[in-house]
Design brief:
The chain is mainly beta. The protein has four helices and 20 strands. The chain binds copper (II) ion.
Length: about 375
């Protein structure tokens, strides 16, 4: 039995464990629901009985060096069919290649800067020596165009982390200069997962689309795609205008923050992000917007782990249909008592590891419940 979890978004993915369909897959024939013992789907007994992740106390060195070559360079990147942009990439992709090692390994990253501006890499969440922290003018010089810099540090704690530019960070990160950093434990403990997925959330400002800004001198070709035309999707509802209206109301009432120059006063500011002054109009999971996000396909009964990492400046309450899941680690640290939930809010800079048992057959969504984020250029995918 196959279970696909459509991932969408904007921030949306599909998960299939076979039962009924959303509009995304309505061309498929209806699937007969498998008869399942009620206790296996109406309770979280099995899920709660799963062990926790192991915590790391001390690790012997492995004497292994894991070497990675990264090149920061510009590349065209397709967010979704018909929508391309000039991205900043590591090795031509967004996110860049996942850097993965085992606790006790030495990680060596040789970074070549082929951009036309300076850059650096910060290892987000891992405790590295100060000189390896990647913060220009504090711990190293900014890496100039054409220069190469080598980072080297110990993989000292299992977990889900990120790496990203720490030079001109808002612009370089929002253009795609980031990737996932995963450290595997030396002692994995009792908890075993049948499948593992990773999801890195990004936000984009694509000019000349609804909600997108065109800065002076910026000319980003959209390959002829008009708003929503490639997706065949319905117009968005009133939520955005309600939100705008609400914001205007606030301004007409006495403002306790008067004099603080709140960013909502900016004429350029538009809603669409949970963080003011960000003007994202596309949201991506692993560099892709729905419907080009990759579905999750799992078999009935499999235990599935998903590593979530938010490098965008938006807040993403990720919600799974049809199942509860456990939060088993936050920012790389195992929870001794995993929390059972159906939604986890992933703030900017945070990572979460979650797991669930695929025991409710069907096609289910896993999506951001900040519903502005399930849109592409203000157009809802129609889920
Ligand atoms: Cu979101």
């Amino acid at each position: 039995m196959v279970t696909r979890f459509p991932t969408t978004i904007g921030l949306l993915v599909s998960l299939t464990i076979l039962v009924s369909c959303t509009s995304v897959h309505k061309q498929e024939p209806p699937v007969k629901q498998q008869s399942v013992a009620p206790e296996s789907i109406l309770t979280t007994t099995k899920l709660r009985k799963l062990p926790a992740l192991n915590e790391t106390d001390t690790i012997p060195l492995t004497n292994q060096v894991r070497e990675f070559k990264l090149e920061a360079k510009e590349a065209r990147w397709q967010l979704v069919s018909g929508v391309e942009t000039n991205a900043y990439t590591f090795n031509g992709t967004v996110p860049g290649p996942t850097i993965r090692a085992k606790e006790g390994d030495i990680i060596r990253v040789i970074l070549k800067n082929s951009l036309t501006e300076e850059t650096s890499i910060h290892w987000h969440g891992l405790h590295v020596p100060n000189l390896m922290d990647g913060v220009p003018s504090f711990t190293q010089h900014a890496i100039k165009p054409g220069e190469t810099f080598t980072y080297e540090f110990l993989a000292n704690h299992a977990g889900t982390y990120m790496y990203h530019s720490h030079f001109n960070s808002i612009e370089q990160i929002d253009k795609g200069l980031y990737g996932l950093l995963v450290i595997d434990p030396q002692n994995p403990g009792e908890l075993k997962h049948d499948k593992e997925y990773t999801m890195m959330f990004g936000g984009w400002n694509i000019p000349n689309q609804a909600g997108g800004q065109t800065k002076q001198g910026q000319n980003d070709s959209m390959s002829g795609m008009s708003k929503g035309s490639a997706l065949g999707i319905k117009k968005k509802g009133d939520i955005r205008s309600l939100m705008e209206h609400g914001m205007e109301d606030k301004k007409s009432t006495p403002d306790p923050h008067a004099g603080m120059n709140m960013p909502s006063e900016s004429p350029d500011n538009k809603p669409g992000s949970t963080v003011m002054e960000m003007d994202y109009n596309y949201w991506t999971i692993n560099g892709k917007s729905f419907p080009d996000t990759s579905p999750i396909e799992v078999k009935y009964g499999e235990i599935v782990r998903i590593r979530l990492a938010n490098i965008s400046n938006g807040i993403h309450p990720m919600h799974l249909h049809g199942h509860d899941f456990r939060i088993i680690a936050k920012d790389g640290h195992p929870l001794t008592t995993p929390q059972v939930v159906n939604t986890v809010t992933v703030n900017p800079g945070e990572t979460y590891d979650i797991d669930f048992i695929a025991d409710n057959p069907g096609q289910w969504l896993f999506h951001c419940h900040e519903l502005h984020h399930t849109t592409n250029a203000d157009v809802e995918p129609g889920v």
